[in-house]
Structure formats: structure tokens, C-alpha cells
């Protein structure tokens, strides 16, 4: 089969998306306009949260969450090594200390037993929070993590960049969608092109906590508030001692040290348009996952795979194989650009310099030696997927 390059992920931009962005570019506002609030409201409704704050990217979302929760120098926060570095780096941005716990080798998620062991073997108050990651699109059981966090008075940031539309089923049999705010204090999403919803760049924070929501709005825009009820300077000062009992329309206050982490209106317009197809895209991802699972179920060269899991959002489909490097290079020779997710974060040179070393998290490290992420995106055709499957099979059976 002659085929064009097949990447591990690819955005899908339709004529409807292009029209939405074009209209935004022709409108009065390119930034700080009405399309941002519209996207926020639509996204909050989609995941089931009370509030949503759109920002420039997922990393900015993580940083703002850490700031809003008051992470400071010396604070210890637990997260997984199996993630993009930003999940850990957001703690370091605030001067905090990252403590990695190992993964569950069956789910690839942060292992709650590993987290509990850290908490039980340290004085209460040692840790401030937990950042679980819905890796590959599989939802963390946040009900269990919430119970553990409450026991030790910890906050939770849910990194849901891989899992919009994903869910887990709680102890009452209720579907709990990623980012709905029922268990995590804050959650974040990414709108990078390979994610479910593409804005070019962009991110979203969701929460059910109004005080955190208000703080995030200010932190996103230099720490500036524009609300008569929140001002601390007097009306007299604000109006330059003019005779008035109202704050003038121009007035605003910078009340905390914030950042410019805003998203644009044309990115938000693209996000709103993409959101209309989110459910259809998720359904197609699950079909692709089922095809992979069926194809590899009885293959001796497969040591593990993402599998078919209720509520999985399938940002990635991971298989574990022997001779991963050989397979990776073989697939590239046939224009199949698989990817590796991830090099364990604790073994990045930056974190090695902080004291982490090989052998600290053996399950995550073992996973890394075998993992490879296969093409997974809604516009992947059945013919392309079969080509990928056949090439993998031929590599191990030549």
C-alpha cells in the first residue's frame, strides 16, 4: 500500500472551523472579547463544571493553578513521572518541590498505593497536594484520590490534557467526567493540535470553587481586577478626588502578581467550533482503540496495551513491545511516525540534578523501555490503521 505519512496525532480543521475563525478575525475584538467567554461557558457545560477559564496553553493553566493554590518555596507536591514535564514543572515555577510516585503498570496511571506510602511515611503536613494525570486519556479514579487527599488535607489538580470527554465510574455507579470539579479542586486541559480539541495553542482550567475561579481570572491577566466590589483603593483616589460616589469606568487595580496568559478570540472561536465535533471525535477514537485491541489481543510480541476501557478518551493508544527501537525505526521507514510517551520525568537531566536517579521508580522506568504510541486521531482511516497493524505484525514475524 502506498500511503502518505501517518503521524501519531493530527488536527482536523474543517470549513466550519475556518469560517468560525474568519468571522472572529473580522470582528471588533481579536482578544479579550466575547468569544472567549462563550468558549468557557460551552466547555464548562461539556465537562460538567461550574466555571472555566481559558488560557494561552496547558502549561499556563498548570502554572496558574499552582499560583491560585498558593504553592510556595519548599512545598512538596506529589505527581506521576509518566507525563509531559509541565505537570511537574508548574510546582517548580512556584519554588515548590516535586515528589514523584510510581505508576500502576496495568493502567499507566499514578498508583494510589505508591502515593499513600509516601504520605504514611512522612509527618502529616509534609505534602501540600497531588497532581494525578489522566494519562493517554484514561481517567484517574478521583473519588479514591479525594478520600486520600482529605485524610491528609491535600488539594488535587487533575491534569486532564489527554481526556476531555473521558470519565470514571464512582462507587455509586455514576459517570464522573474528567474536569467536572466534583473531586479535584482544579483541572486543566490542553488545546494543542494533537489533542481532542485544537486551538493551535490554548488551555482551559475548570473548577467548582468560586474563590479559585475569581483568583484565576485575575492571575491570567497580570493580577488585574476590574470590579467595583473587589477594589481596595478608595473611590476618591480612583476618581482623582473628583466629586463622585462611583468608581470611574477606566479604573482597574493590579492586586496580585499575575501573568499575561490570555487566549485570543480567534483561538476561542476555533475551540467552540471544534467542541461541536468533540463527541463524534471521541466515538471514532474509541473505534480505533477497539480495532487495535482486537488486532493485538493474542500477539506474543505485545507485552501490554491500552486496551478497551470504559470512559477512556484515547488521546494515545500505547502498546508495550520488545525491541521498541527496532519497531520505531521500521515504522518510520514506512512513513508511520509513532511516538514515545513518555521518557520518565524524574530522569530528565533537570530532575536528575535535583537528586532523582534510575531505580527510584522501577515500574515507570520499565514501562519506558517498551512503550510506543500508535497513530490515534479521528481522521485516521480504517485502511491506514490496518496498514499500521500489518507493518507491526510483519516486523515481528519476518
Written description of the protein model:
- There is one protein chain.
- With 398 residues, the protein is an alpha/beta fold.
- The protein contains 14 helices and 16 strands.
- Helix 3 packs across helix 4 (86-93) and helix 3 packs across helix 7.
CATH architecture of the largest domain: 3-Layer(aba) Sandwich
Helix % is 25-40%
User: Could you say which overall geometry the principal axes of the C-alpha atoms support?
Assistant: globular
Sheet with most strands: 7 strands, mixed
Supply the CATH superfamily name of the largest domain: Type I PLP-dependent aspartate aminotransferase-like (Major domain)
Q: What's the helix-strand series?
A: EHHEHEHEHEHEEEEEHEHEHHEEHEHHEH
Note the beta-strand portion.
15-25%
What's the arrangement of strands in the largest beta sheet? Answer: 2-10-9-6-5-3-4
What is the CA–CA distance across the termini?
18 Å
Mean pLDDT: 97
| CATH topology assignment of the largest domain | Aspartate Aminotransferase, domain 2
CATH class of the largest domain: Alpha Beta
Total number of domains: 2
State the low-pLDDT regions, or none: none
Q: How many strands in all?
A: 16
Taking all Cα atoms into account, the compactness measure Rg is 23 Å
Amino acid at each position: 500500500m502506498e500511503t502518505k505519512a501517518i503521524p501519531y496525532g493530527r488536527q482536523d480543521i474543517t470549513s466550519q472551523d475556518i469560517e468560525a475563525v474568519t468571522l472572529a478575525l473580522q470582528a471588533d475584538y481579536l482578544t479579550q472579547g466575547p468569544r472567549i467567554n462563550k468558549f468557557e461557558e460551552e466547555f464548562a457545560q461539556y465537562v460538567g463544571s461550574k466555571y472555566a477559564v481559558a488560557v494561552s496553553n496547558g502549561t499556563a493553566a498548570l502554572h496558574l493553578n499552582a499560583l491560585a493554590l498558593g504553592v510556595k518555596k519548599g512545598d512538596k507536591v506529589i505527581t506521576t513521572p509518566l507525563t509531559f514535564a509541565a505537570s511537574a514543572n508548574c510546582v517548580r515555577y512556584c519554588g515548590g518541590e516535586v515528589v514523584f510516585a510510581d505508576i500502576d503498570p496495568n493502567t499507566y496511571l499514578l498508583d494510589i498505593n505508591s502515593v499513600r506510602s509516601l504520605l504514611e511515611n512522612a509527618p502529616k503536613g509534609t505534602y501540600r497536594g497531588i497532581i494525578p494525570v489522566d494519562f493517554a486519556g484514561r481517567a484517574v479514579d478521583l473519588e479514591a484520590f479525594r478520600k486520600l487527599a482529605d485524610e491528609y488535607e491535600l488539594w488535587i489538580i487533575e491534569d486532564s490534557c489527554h481526556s476531555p470527554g473521558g470519565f470514571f465510574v464512582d462507587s455509586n455507579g455514576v459517570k464522573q467526567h474528567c474536569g467536572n470539579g466534583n473531586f479535584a479542586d482544579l483541572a486543566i486541559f490542553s488545546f494543542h493540535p494533537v489533542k481532542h480539541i485544537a486551538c493551535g495553542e490554548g488551555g482551559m482550567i475548570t473548577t467548582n470553587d468560586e474563590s479559585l475561579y475569581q483568583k484565576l481570572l485575575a492571575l491570567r491577566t497580570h493580577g488585574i481586577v476590574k470590579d467595583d466590589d473587589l477594589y481596595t483603593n478608595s473611590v476618591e483616589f480612583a476618581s482623582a478626588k473628583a466629586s463622585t460616589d462611583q468608581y470611574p469606568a477606566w479604573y482597574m487595580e493590579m492586586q496580585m502578581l499575575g501573568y499575561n496568559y490570555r487566549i485570543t478570540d480567534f483561538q476561542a472561536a476555533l475551540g467552540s467550533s471544534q467542541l461541536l465535533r468533540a463527541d463524534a471525535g471521541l466515538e471514532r477514537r474509541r473505534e480505533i482503540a477497539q480495532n487495535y485491541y482486537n488486532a493485538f489481543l493474542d500477539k506474543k510480541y505485545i507485552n501490554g496495551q491500552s486496551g478497551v476501557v470504559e470512559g477512556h478518551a484515547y488521546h494515545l493508544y500505547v502498546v508495550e513491545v520488545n525491541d521498541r527501537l527496532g519497531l520505531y525505526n521500521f515504522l518510520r521507514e514506512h512513513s508511520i511516525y509513532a511516538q514515545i510517551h513518555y521518557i520518565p520525568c524524574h530522569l530528565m537531566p533537570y530532575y536528575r540534578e535535583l537528586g532523582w536517579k534510575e531505580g527510584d521508580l522501577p515500574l515507570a522506568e520499565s514501562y519506558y523501555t517498551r512503550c510506543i504510541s500508535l497513530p490515534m486521531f479521528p481522521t485516521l482511516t480504517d485502511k491506514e490503521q490496518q496498514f499500521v497493524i500489518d507493518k507491526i505484525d510483519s516486523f515481528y514475524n519476518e
